[in-house]
Design the sequence.
């Protein structure tokens, strides 16, 4: 089945460390997104990319950077992790021909910054 | 600021009851109003969605009610089942935003047997 995968699924790191979260998809979608989920705050968009040469900031991009290595791969980096970046991170993809701007989410990465 | 506000934050319903989750939005330019369902350990998945030119959409036990003048929409789950226990997110999107979604805060629904 075409899918969205994220690695690692869980990560514990220390303040100040650089960390990369990876997303791969076999759906053939051009559009990819990174969100973070926090209790009581819902899902907030960090960065998004509509094709390999297109990168856009979302509503909470400070402290994060991304790389779109190929159509199928979109990585999120925390250059110097801090405790308030502890959250559940989701990658998603979409195809503009689908109705309702439907997005397909990966299983998430739980990140803890000590 | 939260452009889509969702309530309640948590909801407990007995099996067979009706679950109701409400959302309000600010931006009248939104074109689509989807609901996403998230089970523990999984990513959210589209459940049902509506456009603002209709007031109601029903798919099985799930219904969206939409009130354009009040800028509100709600999800009704009829005959709620324990398998419906999940977190539900409302969202809003603009056709011109290129698939960007603005999510509400989420509602954790528990359906007791």
Sequence:
């Amino acid at each position: 089945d075409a899918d969205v995968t994220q690695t690692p699924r869980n990560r514990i790191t220390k303040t100040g460390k650089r960390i990369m979260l990876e997303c791969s998809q076999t759906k053939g979608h051009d559009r990819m997104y990174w969100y973070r989920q926090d209790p009581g705050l819902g899902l907030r968009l960090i960065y998004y990319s509509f094709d390999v040469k297109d990168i856009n900031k979302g509503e909470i991009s400070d402290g994060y950077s991304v790389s779109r290595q190929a159509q199928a791969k979109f990585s999120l980096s925390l250059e110097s992790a801090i405790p308030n970046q502890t959250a559940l991170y989701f990658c998603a993809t979409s195809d503009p021909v689908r109705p309702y701007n439907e997005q397909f989410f990966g299983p998430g990465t739980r990140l803890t910054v000590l | 600021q939260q452009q889509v506000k969702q309530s309640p934050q948590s909801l407990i319903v007995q099996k067979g009851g009706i679950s109701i989750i409400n959302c309000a939005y600010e931006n009248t330019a939104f074109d689509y109003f989807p609901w996403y369902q998230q089970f523990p350990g999984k990513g959210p998945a589209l459940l049902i969605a509506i456009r603002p030119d209709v007031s109601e959409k029903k798919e099985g036990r799930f219904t969206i009610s939409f009130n354009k003048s009040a800028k509100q929409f709600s999800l009704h789950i009829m005959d709620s089942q324990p398998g419906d226990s999940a977190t539900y997110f409302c969202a809003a999107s603009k056709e011109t935003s290129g698939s960007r979604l603005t999510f509400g805060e989420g509602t954790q629904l528990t359906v007791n047997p």
